[in-house]
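Service request form, structural biology core

Requester: graduate student, group of Dr. S.
Request type: structure prediction, single chain
Budget code: on file
Notes: please return the result as structure tokens.

Sequence provided:
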Amino acid sequence: MEEFKAFLKRKDIEISVRRYFIDAMSAMAQGLFCSLLIGTIINTLGSRLNIEFLTETVAVVAGTPYTVGGLATAMSGSAMAVAIGFALHCPPMVLFSLTTVGFASNALGGAGGPLAVFFVAIISAELGKAVSRETRVDILVTPLVTIVSGVALASLIAPPIGKAAMKLGSIIMWATELQPFFMGIAVSVIVGMLLTLPVSSAAICAALQLTGLAGGAAVAGCSAQMIGFAVMSFRENRWGGLVSQGLGTSMLQMGNIVRNPRIWIAPIVTSAVTGPVATCVFRLQMNGPAVSSGMGTCGLVGQIGVITGWQGTQVTFTDWLGLILISFVLPAIICPAVNSLCRRAGWVKDGDLSLDRK
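Core staff response, request fulfilled:
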């Protein structure tokens, strides 16, 4: 047993929640951003602004025409797998081999492909790491083990994983349509909290293909956390904190939350308010990429995703008003107001929200 543990340590194979469900999942979300998300944005810019280069076919593969954005989108499985491999500290031969594994997993997983990629890429990456540099013919053995194990595993488990993820996502979206008020609260609060925790809310939304009203509630919850923390901590973190949290991530407050969990009350209450406002009042929907649902105001990706979903529909003043109110105005008003009540109750004190706190 000790020899096996020593082998895992030598190969940097760490079987832990942090390595797989925090590091790998966060990296997977970045892979999605650099492929599916950016591809969708490129397509939207091309069609909205009539940019010929972005709308014309630049390649035809097996009879299928692709635009620049289409090529980026088509590579989403490979991008996710390579990102996961990078987070798992894979050696080069394993990392490069994961392009095939990711493509196969995403294709076989269907609409639930991202979740299939997550599991298959982790297993094949660790198997590849285990055999890497163990033989004299490493250039053959390492990619062979990584690719064959990954594709075989993908053919076996990707379809059921994809179907299960889609089913769960469909249930959540169906429930949100049926009970927009209560599900608006639930989705907004849960996804918003996941955004602030050291896990990837974006990857989870992508894996579940969370769109529609449920996606709109997710955008509301994430925005409530980011804008809420940014505004209510302004007197401690000033403009740098406003930008880093409002357009970056509310995860920066995680250390302060561990020290004093009560600072989280105001953003959570805010998301519980803006969620049902999004679903019941403005009927805010995410019909763009599902990954955008879990991004909030990070680089304005959540808002761009909503706008992308408007393509081909008649957009009204109410649509724009709802998006602006839910994403920015309401969190900036409600969160500091609730936090002031927490301060009066003695639950939150000066310095509790400082990002420079040691």
